[in-house]
Design a protein that fits this description.
single chain; about 325 residues; alpha/beta; Peroxisomal Thiolase, Chain A, domain 1; about 30% helix; binds oxa(dethia)-CoA
Length: about 325
């Protein structure tokens, strides 16, 4: 008997405060026009001082649990993908476990920056396929605003805060759920996107430093390559994909990947305009948005892909 893992439900949470491009014009030397043209971002959500990443993660996880019709005791483990934990330790995952009153089981964070959700999904999928877990809560949650230098226009206009979650569940039906996951990193490129601080160096979280053009170039090439790998491995063609759900960093990267696939933009989930770049939260936020708006339907084939600091990148093919 082959075990697979299927997405039982999705959830998400965005902090109430919306920061528009117009408002950013009063903070740094930028324009709404530049931000929209270069990135596609119109606004982003920013968490308040007393709203740490765990607050976002807990609310997204609660939302996914409510949508699932399950009880807290039905969840065996929690994995949170995040780069912005509340504290150096404990993990955000144990806070989610406690807040939802889940039973004892594994709870840990995964750090792969913007690819974090794909990494976490892959780990949860392996746990389920091995037979050791029946259901795992997988969350992507970030308070990216806490890593921003609000005087640096090259980064502060790009990011936002939020969280998304899925409940992965064991299934005995073949060709359902997560069909394949693909994970990569090239640590030689770690200096393209990083923070200028950390626990064992400055003792502070630091701020985001990005060599945007270089990251952009890598993203376009590596996303095209990994998408090709996913299609070949699963013997599917771009026409078989119902929805491309990419990491939401820049609309130009998203359209570039869609063009390479020959997919029209009406089969691509885009939320970067409303959310900005929410790092590990961006894909589960986009997925939940598309599920709740009725775009993504049961049985459809979804292609998820992301790239982030590390550089890390990854993809997943899912029969939803
Ligand atoms: O999520 C992880 C992965 N991250 C990504 O995938 C992001 C990849 N990179 C990008 O999305 C783009 O490189 C950016 C959106 C970050 C930047 O766009 P770009 O087209 O690569 O612009 P640039 O950095 O080359 O800057 C072009 C110009 C510069 O001025 P000069 O030197 O040409 O006079 C910048 O100083 O735009 C200027 N600039 C700005 N102007 C107004 C940079 N930031 C701003 C700003 N407002 N916020």
């Amino acid at each position: 008997m082959t075990l697979t893992s299927v997405i039982r439900s999705t959830g998400s949470f965005l902090p109430a405060r919306i920061l528009t491009n117009k408002e950013l014009e009063t903070i740094v030397d930028t324009t709404d026009e530049w931000i929209v043209q270069r990135t596609g971002i119109e606004e982003r959500h920013i968490a308040a001082k007393d709203e740490p990443t765990s607050f976002l993660a807990i609310n997204a996880a609660k939302n996914a649990l409510e949508s699932s019709g399950l009880r807290p005791e039905d969840i065996d483990g929690v994995i949170v993908a995040t780069t912005t934990p509340d504290q150096s330790f404990p993990s955000v995952a144990v806070k989610v476990q406690a807040a939802l009153d889940l039973k004892p089981g594994p709870a840990f964070d995964v750090q792969a920056v913007c690819s974090g959700f794909i990494y976490a999904l892959s780990v949860a999928d392996s746990m389920i396929r091995s037979g050791s877990m029946n259901r795992v809560m997988v969350v992507g949650a970030e308070k990216m605003s806490s890593l921003l230098d609000w005087t640096d226009r090259s980064t502060c206009v790009l990011f936002g805060d939020g969280a998304g979650a899925v409940i992965l569940e064991k299934s005995e039906q073949e060709a359902q759920g997560i069909l394949s996951t693909h994970l990569y990193a090239n640590g030689r490129l770690n200096d393209l996107l990083y923070t200028d601080g950390g626990v064992s160096t400055s003792g502070t979280a630091g701020h985001i430093i990005m060599h945007g053009k270089e990251v952009f170039k890598n993203a376009v090439t590596l996303m095209a390559d990994i998408v090709e790998e996913v299609l070949t491995k699963n013997n599917v063609s771009p026409e078989n994909i119902d929805w491309l759900i990419p990491h939401q960093a820049n609309l130009r990267i998203i359209t570039g990947t869609a063009e390479k696939l020959g997919m029209s933009m009406d089969r691509v989930v885009v939320t970067v305009n409303k959310h900005g770049n929410t790092s590990a939260a961006s894909i589960p936020l986009a997925l939940d948005d598309a599920v709740r708006s009725g775009k993504v339907q049961r049985g459809q084939l979804l292609l998820l892909e992301a790239l982030g600091g590390g550089l890390t990148w990854g993809a997943a093919l899912i029969r939803f």
